[in-house]
Design goal:
7-stranded mixed sheet; 11 helices; two-stranded antiparallel sheet
């Protein structure tokens, strides 16, 4: 995809409110990092109070994935998760607008040699990530240390799309943004020996998935990781990030490449991926994106795990 360019159309009155909001956000993120953490937690409390549907989804996911916890423990975890989501709002702005030197001081990177070794060998890498609330800032911090291409879905608002892409791509001057459905472009990047960020942990429907266990529940799990690794002749390298509790920044871990992947079949690979998801999410459940309906697609004949969704009035 081409680099985003400013268009005079963005000055149209329909975008003035968005410009105002972005301007206020830019001003706020000039505050010291500890202040932003506090503001994020306050925003998370507000979101917990008003975002009823998202709160219900996240609570249900925690019930499904952590039945061994008491209701009180899950409710505490739910509130911590909303606080983490509120902080993520400011982390997004930090990754877009903070000077790179200021941002880099927050990064504690481990395992970078795995990417460097693959790059030296001309080996493509699927950087297998997860939808943690720290997703945006984690990708930005790693992008300052190693070029990462990324899967991309265009935002419906063209101004927001411009701001978002510009903020993301400033950390990777030679990176490529690839449309999520453009499989040919992704394989071309992998065969060229580049690393691409990819997260296989959401529900993308029955068509491109297999049902395998995730936290003991049959979950529609995409088989694309196996296909991309095989056709792109690429390594699969797990990547996790963590917002450190002491306020010193973020721990980014590039784990060793998965051995013998792809395996004997797609189902075995999906099981292996979900086992890794369980391990990574279980270590930091409060920082995971629980507001996604991860188990919305059910095997034939099984009822919804989330109940009926209310239809919006036209």
């Amino acid at each position: 995809m081409e680099r985003p360019h400013f268009r005079p159309y963005f000055l149209h009155p329909r975008f003035w409110l968005l410009w105002l909001g972005l301007g206020l956000l830019w001003l706020l993120v000039q505050l010291p990092y500890p202040w932003l953490l506090c503001l994020g937690r306050l925003l998370g409390r507000l979101m917990y109070a008003v975002a009823g549907s998202r709160r219900k989804i996240a609570r249900r996911n925690l019930e499904l994935c952590f039945p061994e916890l008491s209701q009180e423990q899950r409710e505490r975890l739910l509130k911590e998760n909303f606080a983490s989501t509120g902080i993520a709002f400011f982390e997004m702005a930090m990754s877009w607008w903070w000077p790179q030197a200021r941002l880099q001081r927050l990064a504690h990177v481990e395992g970078l040699e795995h990417l460097q070794r693959a790059q030296a060998a001309g080996q493509g890498v699927i950087l297998m990530a997860l939808h943690f609330t720290t997703l945006e800032i984690g990708a930005a911090l790693l992008g300052q240390r190693h070029t990462i291409d990324g899967m991309y879905r265009e935002h419906k608002n063209p101004l927001f799309d411009f701001i978002q892409r510009r903020g993301r791509e400033r950390h990777n001057r030679d990176a490529t943004a690839i449309e999520r459905e453009d499989v040919r472009a992704m394989l071309k990047v992998l065969r060229a020996g580049r690393a691409i960020w990819y997260a296989p942990d959401q529900d993308y429907g029955r068509k491109q998935s297999l049902f395998v266990p995730l936290f003991g529940i049959q979950a529609a799990t995409v088989t694309a990781t196996t296909k991309f690794a095989r056709l792109g002749r690429a390594l699969v390298v797990p990547f996790t990030q963590e917002r450190l509790a002491d306020g010193s920044g973020y721990r980014l871990v590039i784990h060793p490449p998965l051995e013998n992947f792809p395996g004997e079949n797609e189902e075995a690979d999906c099981r292996r991926i979900n086992q890794w998801v369980e391990e990574a999410v279980g270590a930091l459940p409060e920082q995971y994106l629980w507001a996604h309906r991860r188990f919305k697609t059910r095997p034939e004949g099984e009822p919804s795990l989330y109940g009926r969704r209310r239809k919006r009035r036209g």
